[in-house]
Write a structure and sequence with these properties.
Elements (H helix, E strand, L loop, with lengths): L1 H29 L12 H44 L3 H23 L5 H14 L4 H46 L8 H27 L3 H16 L4 E9 L2 E9 L1
Antiparallel strand pairs: 1-2
Helix pairs in contact: 1-2, 2-3, 2-4, 2-7, 3-6, 4-5, 5-6, 5-7
């Protein structure tokens, strides 16, 4: 039986390594190649292009790092947990259960990061429309409309998902810690109690981390839209020239100031 667990652990390690390479290759293929902004007669369009490109690059880098961390963690935790489960003792069984649950949580966050972010999709659409020859005014108008809507949707979804994940992860982690630290509860076998506690703690912590990340860190499409709006508001300021005269003994001085 122990040999079977060891073989399974080896297969798990090989599978995790293969999945890591496949996922990283998928992330690399999904990256939009950097395309520098073309010459345009509309300043806001050039600024939008630069901000969208930067947001897409940041989103892709964040997805790639999440995938790499998740798969690396799973590749280490899963085989280790399986081997410990095979040893049969209470302590190895409890630790192995917690490690296996943590590996499952890491894989879940990895799979969530495989699809393109809204910033990457928006920049891809922007590039396609520009390459197709869409008039600049129409391109800017449609991009601004979609950008605004995606930023609002992203903020709403981020807060909702972050709240759910934080509450669920926190409940799992606290419940698991209670089962691990509490004395034997009723007729529940101590080994079963500790195993359930290890599973809840091991799976709850990744969800709690993901939830807090979603609550406090804005997405690239949100930050880029805020930067674009701030630039538009600053660019809308009208220049003004103020002229004044200050008399003093024997003459006077003319004072001129301007704002941009």
């Amino acid at each position: 039986m122990t040999h079977r667990y060891i073989r399974f652990a080896r297969y798990s390690l090989a599978f995790s390594a293969g999945l890591s390479l496949t996922s990283l290759a998928h992330a690399a293929e999904s990256a939009q190649p950097p395309v520098h902004a073309a010459a345009t007669n509309i300043p806001d369009l050039a600024r939008a292009s630069a901000l969208l490109e930067q947001a897409a690059e940041n989103a892709h880098d964040a997805r790639t790092s999440t995938i790499a961390i998740g798969l690396t963690s799973s590749a280490v935790l899963m085989p280790t947990g399986v081997v410990l489960l095979a040893r049969g003792g209470d302590v190895p069984h409890i630790i192995g259960t917690g490690l296996t649950a943590s590996a499952g949580g890491a894989l879940f966050t990895t799979f969530l990061s495989l699809h393109l972010s809204s910033a990457e999709r928006l920049y891809g659409t922007f590039q396609e429309r520009r390459a197709a020859g869409m008039p600049e005014a129409e391109l800017l108008s449609r991009t601004e409309s979609e950008w605004r809507a995606l930023a609002q949707t992203s903020a709403e979804n981020r807060r909702t998902a972050g709240t759910v994940e934080t509450v669920m992860g926190g409940a799992f982690a606290v419940s698991g810690a209670f089962l691990l630290l509490a004395p034997q509860l009723g007729s529940l076998p101590r080994r079963t109690q500790y195993s359930i506690g290890a599973i809840l703690t091991g799976s709850g912590i990744p969800f709690l981390s993901l939830g807090l990340h979603s609550l406090f860190l804005k997405s690239p499409v949100e930050t880029s839209w805020s930067a674009y709006r701030a630039g538009s508001a600053a660019g809308a300021t009208v220049g003004r020239l103020d002229v004044g005269f200050a008399p003093f003994a024997g003459g006077g001085a003319m004072i001129m100031s301007t704002t941009f």
